Amino acid sequence: MAAGVAPPDEPGEAAVDCLVGVIEGTKFPSPGSWPAKVSVEL
C-alpha cells in the first residue's frame, strides 16, 4: 500500500515528509478482503 500527502500550499511542503512517516507507521484495523482508503484533513 502507499501513503501520500497533498499540501494545500507551499509552506505546507515542509511538513510533508513528517506526515507521511506518521501515516505509514499508523496501524489501522483490517477492512476485510478489500483495500480501504483513508483520508485525513489537517
Task: Give a summary of the structure in a few sentences.
By secondary structure, the protein is mainly α.
**Mean pLDDT, all residues:** 80
What is the terminal separation in angstroms? 21 Å
DSSP summary: helix tally: 1
Q: Which overall shape is indicated by the principal axes computed on the Cα atoms?
A: elongated
Structural class: mainly alpha
Q: How many strand units?
A: 0
Beta percentage is under 5%
Give the fraction of residues assigned to helices: 10-25%
Outline the low-pLDDT stretches: none
Walk me through this protein's architecture.
The chain has 42 residues and is mostly helical. The protein is built from one helix and no strands. It has one helix at residues 16-25. The mean pLDDT is 80.
Strand and helix layout:
Blueprint lengths: L15 H10 L17
Task: Give a quick set of tags describing it.
single chain, 42 residues, mainly alpha
